[in-house]
Amino acid sequence: MTLEGRFDGDVVRVAGDARQRFHDARGYGYPLEGNEIALAPVEAAHLLYRGDIAVVDTRSADSRTLAFRDFLAGDHGPDFGVQFLVYADLRSRGFYLSPAREPWLESPPDAAFAVFPRGSGPSDGEIEYALQVVGERTDLSATDLQAGALAVVDEESEITYFEVSSPDISGDSASSLPTGIDADLLEDRVVVWNPPETLYERTFYGQPLEGREYDRPTLQCSLLEAAHLSRNGALELDPERVLERGRTVEGDRFDRRLAVYTALRAAGVVPKTGYKFGADFRTYASVESVDELGHSELLIRVHPADHVFEPRDIALDVRLAHGVRKTMVFALVDSTGQAGGTINWLALTRLTP
Amino acid sequence: MTLEGRFDGDVVRVAGDARQRFHDARGYGYPLEGNEIALAPVEAAHLLYRGDIAVVDTRSADSRTLAFRDFLAGDHGPDFGVQFLVYADLRSRGFYLSPAREPWLESPPDAAFAVFPRGSGPSDGEIEYALQVVGERTDLSATDLQAGALAVVDEESEITYFEVSSPDISGDSASSLPTGIDADLLEDRVVVWNPPETLYERTFYGQPLEGREYDRPTLQCSLLEAAHLSRNGALELDPERVLERGRTVEGDRFDRRLAVYTALRAAGVVPKTGYKFGADFRTYASVESVDELGHSELLIRVHPADHVFEPRDIALDVRLAHGVRKTMVFALVDSTGQAGGTINWLALTRLTP
Predict the structure, then answer these.
(1) B137, A188: Cβ pair inside 8 Å?
(2) Which of residues 17-46 of A touch B (CB under 8 A)?
(3) Active site: which residues (chains A, B) (predicted)?
């Protein structure tokens, strides 16, 4: 028997044996008095779509397709369209999920849906993912991006899932530095003359002039490397001059990148430019010698703490990182402090539900 | 015998047997009277670096290293630093190259350097690449990006080379359309009800609702697809309403993307969203059936004709495209026209000299 639902505020109530059929057996809605349940619009739309219920208060309830069509065209809140697509997709993959709201859940996470572990329902008390849902064109503030999962629905209604987590930023790379090495500040880089070989070979600062062979004791350093080295007394160069030059060529971004560079070096991680991957840094957690350099593990993009992401840019970064077997990390720098600002690290990886 | 050079305006003149040693045998400079030659600063810097000449008019000419160091720190124009790095890199790879200026060349291309085919020099009259050179932080106007090659020097002095060319935009995909199919315009997508199976299966419009299986005759189309379909009478939907909605959610970008979408379809190429690759479109040149869909060939990013690139974004796009075995194409739309604007297509690929 096909049940009927009726709107009651922003939920759809279904009576009959709805509790047993939809809630207890398949995790839809929350129980009311007796056998009645209340469904969120997205849940009602899904049951409609599957032909399990027929909503009565639509213009044309004479066919199931029309009922669903009318329901879809109604106004159920700004993100209803993309939320329905994600709900239906995860259901079709065998997951149970609930709106992340009371009374569906006792302590709902700050997200669109709570997704339960495969084979579990809401009553098992365990949540696999707090899932945020956005459309491809929705701006996503960095402050809203939190540990959990993110579903992005593209313009053609395909869905990409991401896991958002805290990365491990630590390493045991060599860190001892020389002192007072001769260096020249050029337009947007620094030349280091006759440094000890270890500066490049062991601590991986700079780039030997002309190709990879270390045949002449001349290194070119980036302004970031030079700022860090001069602050630590390794170069005969005024750190303030380097900092000023960095701000001239990059603006505020230089301070944010230097904060991240400094934090990485302090954690025993070696940052080198991520330019070839379109990122700020690629990082090596354990550099003992450049000759035995392993694969870099992370790609890091630096943003101000209040940065607003476009989902498309996230897709591009995470896809590229995945393709080169690295993890994409966003370093969000609270720019109220200068080079010592607070950094929030977020790792994003693709998730295949 | 080590020769000495002397500045004469913006060239360095070298006498002695310079013509034979440097110009005739190794392609440096251009010949003056007798055996004298004139060198561009970048050529002089390279011969200095190699110890082949010693420049006299530096502060401290008592050691070769110092002479080179002083030369490098001098003012030789805004891009001297990055141009020197590229010049030295290509020389170390066995290429001859000249400044793209008279009188080094008779009809110099509009670029920094003319690179000759490996094993050839300037006198052989053939140019392999007209090479533009920019630093990672240099803005690059789309109007300056032309067929040839591009070298980008990153902040750590590593160099990436790109080839810029005209892509082949043509295909033979199925194109016949139905007429007057029922459709609803939702918030930022269109639902197409009961279309003929060929609309998705053969011409690859839309995305079946809920997963890939085509078990229900309901398609979701992007606003671009719907604009194109409604303009061609395939949907019962006012094309102007779709266009308006597109502009509401995307602004001017919608018109540019529609111009590119339309041009691709007209060329027999099927564009689908490139969202997962951070691009506007991925394209298929020969779609006969979605069941036998091959690999998409191009990733297309749409920009206004006066767009200014950051080299880092180019690196990211080209790297990603390369990683997924597609070719990165920029579609530059002259926005003086609307949906029918002129499109300039540029393909960028990595080049390993």
Answers:
(1) yes
(2) none
(3) 284, 295, 326
